Amino acid sequence: MSEDSQRNFRSVYYEKVGFRGVEEKKSLEILLKDDRLDIEKLCTFSQRFPLPSMYRTLVWKVLLGILPQHQETHSVVMVHRREQYHDVHNALEVIRFIDESTPKSEVFLHMYHLEMGNLSHSQAYPLESEDELFLAIASAMEDMIDDDVDCYWLIKSFVSHIESKFRASHIQMQKSFEHYLNLEDNRLVTHLKTGNTLDKLPYDLWFKKCFAGCLPASSLQRVWDKLVSGSCKILVFVAVEILLTFKMKIMALNNADSLSKFLEKIPEDNTDAIVSKAIDLWHKHCGVPAHSV
Question: What does the UniProt keyword field contain (predicted)?
């Protein structure tokens, strides 16, 4: 039996006895033992499989450029990252821009502005759309990451990542959403068009804020695995699967406001299943990365 055949046999066996993902976890651990981490293979793994929670922060930090590929430098780099965090945080305290009562997501936003050189002279400034995006991502990331330093670096790196990689894709994602939803359920698309609600769905929440605030952290982080590793199309299929899952509810809502309100905060009891089905849809329509891990 070939090595690939043995691996496939073991994977099927583990899944049958309740140890789904054991082989994948072992594969990731092998990748993480390399002195120089292979970005391409880590991206491929993240595209194909959910990241184990114990390794997610490390993999995200490497893929987002917070940590370098060479593992021997990780501890030194994180010392500098931590010092930079505390320097910026302390500076905001000295000028009394933040205090212990300031919500953590707002603290992170002020730190980001200070580092970018555009901190407002007043705390009572109107939020720009970029600020709202940052706060949405920050609030979601807080629920995923316990360490404040890691959390801040991941927030600002993730925001930079989606802005630089996916900003130009938002319009195309909306078109792709309609295309794939039509392939899966053309009657639902016809219903939305007839009710003039297709163009009024919460696309900004889905494709700009990456479902932050719409999905709970436990489900959202599996979607963000794919974003961090380079694919924005997963967002399209999450949106498609949400509409397929709640088709009966959506068909019963007759106006755009009530539909948007429902879709902006969907029930949390089956979001894990929605994300799993969305990933299956994504692989069905777009294929699976072929790089061997």
Answer: Cytoplasm, Cytoplasmic vesicle, GTPase activation, Lysosome, Membrane
